[in-house]
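Table 4 source record.
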Amino acid sequence: MDNNICQVYEDEIQLLEEEIKLLTEKYEDSQQESTFFSDEEILMSINSLQKEFQGESKGNESPSDLKARLGCLETDLSFLMKFTGIQFRSHSKKTVEKTGNRTVQKHRLSGNCHSLSFQLEFQLLEMRNKESVSAVITDLNIVMEAGENSDVSKFASRIGEHGNLLTFFRSLSSYAEWYEHRRCTFLHFK
């Protein structure tokens, strides 16, 4: 009896230690994210935002104009979600590396397109020149729910190898729309 109680306590202690480890890693990641920027960069960003805000306020944009603009943007977003069927549930971004002209960020997205769920994980490599910024997606990993959609899972893994997000979203939108039509048709005949 005592061994069982000890085992339960040891299991609970192990779970708590794992939770502490995960929380510590999250905290260190958030601290690391904020330390990638020097004090000079932070001050420059604050100054540029203040100048931008002052420039916008001088540009006769009243709060009502800003609310109207926000309303238009929300309408556009709603239209795009209805048009494509893609809705994002969560997004996280972590800066992995930042140097003078190179930034590597790790992104995680999850969402659904009609009734199909997906998860994406990729790294975004940004290279800055004096005139332009170029971005390249690397290490793309796409996870789709398995089950009766084994074809779309195979397709997602092939797209992941090529690292082409645009092709994935276009194909997913089209496939999910027709998948939904097929599902409704089969429900009709049951």
